[in-house]
Amino acid sequence: MLIREPITMNTLTLRNRIVKAPCDTAGAVDGAPDEKMAEHYRQRSRGTGLVIVEHEWILPEGMAHAKQLSMGDDRLIDAYRVLTDAVHDEGAAVFAQLSHAGARSRDSGLDAIAPSAETVWSQCHPRAMDDEDIDRVINGFVQAAVRAKEAGFDGIQIHSAHGYLLNQFYSPLTNRRSDAYTGSTMEGRTKLHCDILRAVREAVGDSYPVAIRFGACDFMDGGSAIDEIPQAAKAFEDAGADLIDISGGLSGFIIPGRTEPGYFKDLSMAAGSAVSVPVVLTGGVTTGEQLEQLLEEGAADLIGIGRALLSDPDWSVKALETVS
Ligand SMILES: Cc1cc2nc3c(=O)[nH]c(=O)nc-3n(C[C@H](O)[C@H](O)[C@H](O)COP(=O)(O)O)c2cc1C
Description:
About 35% of the residues lie in helices and about 15% in strands. The chain has helices at about 35-45, 75-90, 130-150, 165-170, 185-205, 230-240, 265-270, 290-295, 305-310, 315-320; strands spanning about 5-10, 10-15, 20, 50-55, 70, 95-100, 115, 125-130, 155-160, 210-215, 245, 280, 300-305. Helix 3 (about 130-150) packs parallel to helix 5 (about 185-205), helix 5 runs parallel beside helix 6 (about 230-240) and helix 6 (about 230-240) crosses helix 7. The radius of gyration is 18 Å and the shape is globular. The mean pLDDT is about 100. The structure holds flavin mononucleotide (FMN).
């Protein structure tokens, strides 16, 4: 059974193919995880291969909401150690998910920034980023990655999905720039991601796993498209990504009107056709049999489980039992 097969990315070997997809619990206290949150992750680590912790802001200006976790301060490192120890006690690996919400930032009292002032969200009025903003964001991801490593995370994931800042750079609908980060070429749309991947790699070292959550299609007219995925995924791999975790772009983590297991599988297969690093597919999976079926079809190397693991902390244990 493929579900039980270990898989290696960079120097890290996962015990099986089950990934706990990052799911915001809005339970942070001043950006920090508390004991209750550590326990939430401990419970969902039983039987799971890799736990990706919910998004953490890297700079205050990139906060998605006031109860979001932060990786923006060295003083948080000790609190994260309690959480990473809890996951490790249950035998799973754990990644931090580093994020900047860009145009969709709120609650910090600071101006929202974005690739361009134009957005698809009528309630957002961001300022277009200048060179200084770009340098600050790259450095913010680097500092956050170093903190996550220090806090015992086995790797980090850079969030570029669901309409947050890096996704705003990838989407031609929200990136109207005409400089090196232009939304009119694939090189420009992926440049900030690649700059960040290389800078993070330099800081954390060659053997530390670095993943990217790639919102690979907007499912909107004029937005990012499925046939562009191989080129982008290859650019991320070449810039140092050890794992490509596929989700939606400006559409969020869904495709409107679709709920079948693995609804993003056209996207994950397009990414997998272009890269040799493992690919994760998330969305719509509720049983171990569905997970096994998607692995057997070659839809991805790993399967992410979001809502099913949120509602049942023993989902992974049960899935391993039912698929025999
Ligand atoms: C309550 C909730 C919070 C979420 N928070 C995040 C997040 O912090 N980062 C992220 O990349 N995706 C987030 N997601 C998306 C999930 O990781 C996942 O892609 C989505 O739930 C689809 O998978 P599922 O059908 O297995 O639930 C969230 C989803 C839900 C339902």
